[in-house]
What does this fold into?
Amino acid sequence: MQKEHAYTIRVVAEQSGLSQHIIRMWERRYTAVNPKRTETNRRLYSAQDIEKLRLLRVATAAGHNISRIAHLSIVELRDITSRLSTDKTPIGGVEVLSQRTNWAGAEEFLHKSLQCVERFNDRELRKILLQASVHLSLPDLMDKLIAPFMMKVGENWQNGSFRIAHEHLATAVVKWFLAHLRSADDSAGFSPAAIVATPAGQLHEIGALMASMTAMSEGWNTVYLGTDLPVQEIALAALEKKARAILLSLIYPVDDPFMADEIQKLSGLLHDKTTIIVGGQAAKAYKNKLSSSRTIVLESLSEFREQLRELRQQIQP
It folds into this structure.
């Protein structure tokens, strides 16, 4: 006889088609499901929870607002989803595909997101990113949508296709979106701590926010400090939180003559067991100066994710 609540959030994510982050968000904000908790605060879900989340995913993909349908019963949600058309359904001027026709993937979201920027349509851009967060796993959301989206916006600005106003709109919406995702996470628990920031002189925030989200998805308890911080302040937070990792994002400028020295200074202020991971578009410019047993310089999100997994395995009791 199977226990009523026997499924971990990883299994629920696989069977419902939702990311673990979205499941936590819908649980916390809308009480869509109510999992049991183990003595170690681990979530356990029932088969009914899985079905309800699957139905909610289908319904929201067709345009229903999660805040309006999260409280509905499985029977009521079945009724809603049974009446959905397999055709494209326009929602607020954006074509959204129902579950049965499926999304074309991250490329479709990317294309529509760039169209919204071109038209200065920030509201529709928010809708598209929220839809993407339902349909894509968090790694795909970061690697295949947000990162290439911001890169393409930058390229379009440099070649004259976009104005500076386009770039500012895209940055503002993506910052809102990533902050929205962060605010819904309550999975810190007993996870190792990681401090996320940009050093003094680094004002671009998107890379740091993406690093924070990626670390959270890999089971880290992230403390986000923001941008343009002296290394002494970063070290203070790391020592207070007993952080096992510091995640630094370097975007621009790429030729700061003091940056390598500042990060080396940071290394000297930390506990011996704390690792500094440096990423971002400008990181490779400092790679030769920063490589050490305490500092790791990475050039892609996939490398960053793999390093976080390896480091977390090393520090598990």
Notes: Residues 16 and 201 are 43 Å apart (CA to CA). The beta strands are 5-7, 36-37, 43-46, 89-91, 94-96, 193-199, 221-229, 245-249, 275-279, 295-297. The chain has 14 helices and ten strands. The mean pLDDT is 84.
